[in-house]
Amino acid sequence: MQQIDTKLPYKLIYSIGEHPYLGYLMEPHIVQLNPNGSLSLSYKRVFSNTVEEFANVLDETDYKIIKLLDDLEQSNVIKKYHKKAVRPIDYFGKIFDSKIYDFIRPKLEQKLLKVLELIGDKPLYLMSKKDGYPADKKLKIAEQSTSILFHFRRNETETRYFPTLKYNGHRMEFMYRNAEVIINTQAWLLLDNVLYHFDQPLEGKKLTPFLNKRYISVSRATEKKYYETFVTSLIEKYSVYAEGFDIKTIKEEAVPVLTLNYVENGESHLQLSFIYGPYQFPPNSDHKISVKLHYNEKQDLYTFTRIKRSLTWEEKQQQFLESLGLKKQDVLFGSYIPDGKEYNNIFEWLSNKKDLLLAHGFEIKHETGDKHFFIGKTTLDIEVVEDNDWFDVRAFANFGPYKIPFVQLREHILNRIQEFTLPNGEIAIIPEEWFAQYEHLFQFVISKKELHLNKAHIGLLHEISEHTALTMSRKLQNLNNFESISRVEPPKEFNGSLRPYQEAGYNWFHFLQEYKFGGVLADDMGLGKTVQTLALLQKQKEDLKNTDYAKTSLLVLPTSLVYNWIKEAEKFAPKLRLLVHTGPNRFKDAYAFTHFDLVITTYGIVRSDEELFSKFFFNYIILDESQNIKNPTSKSFKSIKSLKSRHKLALSGTPIENSVSDIWSQMHFTNPGLLGSYSFFQKEFVIPIEKKKDEQTAKRLQAIIKPFVLRRTKAQVATELPPKTEQIIYCEMTEKQAERYETIKSEYRNALLEGAVNGKGSQIALLQGLTKLRQLANHPRMLDENFKDGSGKFETVLQMLSSISDEGNKVLIFSQFVKHLELFKEYFDTKNIKYAYLDGATKNRAEAVREFKEDADTRIFLISIKAGGVGLNLTEADYVFILDPWWNPAVEQQAIDRSHRIGQKRNVFIYKFISKDTVEEKIVALQNRKMSIATSLITTEETFVKSLTQEDLQELLR
């Protein structure tokens, strides 16, 4: 290779050469011309970034080709498919293997095929294998495509198989002629300096065996399998000439067939197939020809039947199904289910579209089996007649010609049994929305034999008919016209007093109770939803004392909040008899609930014990953090919906987290039927409000739910709040976290008991041990990066952060452990949550503070106590999270003062997170016992440890 003199004539050529590892490739070269115009031996390999100086011999297509060929240069190939930098000699000598070749080569061939499409009559040469000279032999691309015919000759001992090629009407001799397949993906054959291409998709490996072989022989012993696989596939794709077996071709008019595949307790679907004469095929074939093989043993004759398929027509039938609301469930086998926009299951879709399908030429079949399903129109006729004390709901379910009193479906609806047997023995599938819309109807009817509904449950009729929807509207209008809610005497045995806005919430609970409606208390976090609810429960205990009403209420909440509720109940309503229904040893008999005023359990336990809970009738069912059931298809929602009670309440600072649709399941729990079916709610409210920004619809929704949702923000009740509110949040450790904690605690406790902790060195060892326990109480990953199980405190903090940021408030998060803060950083980074950060290593403190103060989207400030305990003024924050208790309460106070100081106009809520049953709880107790020491003497952890007696240490490690 030499430099090209641009002052002398030169030419751009393309050169095909065989790379020792990557196979045939192509390169662009500039070649200097001799005075007579022939190609000289001086040439230069060019790339997109080096070819510009030769622009005068390039056209637009050359630039495209050179860009494609850049990617075929070995260094660029290595860089693309191998992450680390490596020399080509090392890559091909030590790393490259057949697997990598099989992966890379097809991708390179796709580039080559694009080049060959573009190259036209541009100069193309074969590269010399000896010295790499790019213009060794001139190549020509065949003007016409080549055809291929595969031959099979079967005799008494074997079957011989070989291809013949035809070019320009003549048979082409290519065997034993030094021919080479240069591209395999779509075959290109190099023969006698001509590049041949083919008139149909053909893999090069179909040719390769015959470049130096006349035929392939298959013995009688293996022919059956060979015919079933290889030969069948070949006949589907190519022209085949056979001697010794038959190939027949038939063309039949096709019929589209939908076969109903019923899956009990699962998702039933339709299977699409096409019948051509006696043959049936699944859709989505790549081949216009499908082949069936038949063997006649008596005659020893194989017959291949080629069925010509109309793939365009088949595709139109699939498009027709999709236009009717089906979507592909499995592309390979042609199974379909409804797209979910209008229909819940395949039976609803099929019943609605049956006539249209038959008119379009479809056949509808059932999968063979004992059951025969009714497919036809399914409707519900409902008339509501008003009586003195109830509504008489006169309803009939219509399944084709059969009119069934709706009350006969009661057990099916309540127990979610979809199959209903008609008088003729056919099985009708009850529409899915009937379960969602009418389950509550049957739960509240006065009689099992008639549909009599108490007037107090007028809200249940909203979705049933136009008449009852209007009645529901009048009722809601009356409720909206209430100017004030009656005051209810507070409970006698309640410790503490309710603030005015809390008393209003307490009165609102009783207002709902009087009219037999449920409600959602959606106060901001920190405003005392727990206290208001405990006041109600205590009042219920006192009011129901001498009645026959159900007295036991059920509280369902996230696991992380169980202990906090217990603590609050002990503080405000100590007379309530509590049953904490969690853990492996919980009651298995619902009768046990009757001995308690309040059963406390978790969403997970309700899912597990659904059958147990559903047998009991509660006074109140209360959901805390009720956004947990926002998804109406979730197991949590379905389990909660199976429970029965006189009253229902939901508590959530964020009832709408992501979408307007979040409110539906919570309102459906508290006031079934109020917002109609979920599909109705989506269509009538969610889509207009969220996608069309329809303000009128938003106002209409607000008017409907207004009496049943009470929300007060911190700003609204600011004058009733103290300047600063502190609360301890108790967090349950995860199972694996607790195990790890107990192991470390036992090691240090044993050392203490053995008298090993004495003197200064052992004091330091003890301090290290206590530090380890405190880190484990925060998150085991602080000690072990590979710990996988998570942390109870970590999850609780994230849950509360979600509520706060949804309200648009700002929060300071303090920890004395930088490692702890880094775990939150890592989480926020993965979730793209903005935050400010400050620890001892932060160089630009002012920038971190400015970001938190001025950026509305930066609502979280992670601060290490040593870096941020003093010298900061962060009055933008109205929440302070203290992640771990400090030995010296004065240090905690300094952290709190970052937000609660002069200039703060907001009410500040301080939450201290303590892992239950850990040294953290005991530190808080010790702080209180040694308050005088802590406030006057203690400045460091080491000083505090020195002040501990042997009894104190034993208590810490107990």
Automatic annotation (TrEMBL):
Question: In this record, what's one Pfam family?
Answer: SNF2-rel_dom
Coiled-coil-forming residues are none
The protein's name in its UniProt record: ATP-dependent helicase HepA
Organism of derivation: Sphingobacterium thermophilum
Q: Specify the domain of life of the species encoding this protein.
A: Bacteria
Gene3D superfamilies cross-referenced by the UniProt entry: P-loop containing nucleotide triphosphate hydrolases, Tandem AAA-ATPase domain
Quick check: keyword Hydrolase in the entry? yes
Q: Which residues form the Helicase C-terminal domain?
A: 796-949
Start and end residues of each Helicase ATP-binding domain: 510-673
What is the annotated signal peptide range for this record? none
- What are the record keywords, sorted? Hydrolase
InterPro entries (UniProt xref) = Helicase_ATP-bd, Helicase_C-like, P-loop_NTPase, SNF2-like_sf, SNF2/RAD54-like_C, SNF2_N
